[in-house]
Design a protein that fits this description.
mainly alpha, Four Helix Bundle (Hemerythrin (Met), subunit A), two-stranded antiparallel sheet, elongated
Length: 161
């Protein structure tokens, strides 16, 4: 059962973060033809998307191997097994939430590609929801890891180094 929940957590996260949010941006933007995007914007958008997704994937793999768990904890509800160890190295040395930082970079690329305020509105809504999620998660981490987490917070930014 644990393995099924873990696979479901990764699948749900992948669908939501990699496909659903960009699709919402595209739909909210009036479904523009992506073939009409200027080359320079498409190149920069692709670079941002690759960098953002790479950081997110690195964070997930690191969390799975070093934290002995995974990131799917939604507003205090365990979607898949939570991490057992506080991670402060690897991508977590750069940010306390490198998966979200990667997502933000990825969505910035999507906004650049779409180049319309409606896509930016979806991005801002995502940021607000994730800020609420992060605050909920931080409460749990303070409870689970105490002073070790507090010290980590003092030396590492929430999203940016």
């Amino acid at each position: 059962m644990r393995k099924v929940r873990e696979i479901a957590g990764y699948a749900l996260g992948s669908l939501m973060f990699v496909l659903l949010i960009p699709m919402l941006m595209w739909l909210a933007s009036g479904r523009p033809d992506l073939c009409d995007v200027p080359v320079w914007r498409m190149v920069v958008a692709i670079v941002l998307a690759v960098l953002g997704l790479s950081l997110s994937v690195w964070s997930i793999v690191y969390m799975r191997h070093k934290g002995d768990g995974n990131p799917m904890d939604a507003f205090g509800h365990e979607v898949a097994p939570r991490t057992k160890h506080l991670m402060t190295e690897g991508p977590y040395r750069l940010s306390r939430n490198p998966m979200l930082t990667g997502s933000f970079v990825y969505y910035a690329g999507m906004c650049l590609c779409l180049w319309i305020w409606q896509a930016l509105l979806v991005f801002v809504a995502f940021i607000v929801i994730m800020l609420l999620q992060v605050r909920s998660e931080e409460k749990r981490l303070r409870k689970d890891f105490g002073e070790e987490y507090e010290a980590y917070c003092r030396r590492t930014g929430r999203f940016w180094p």
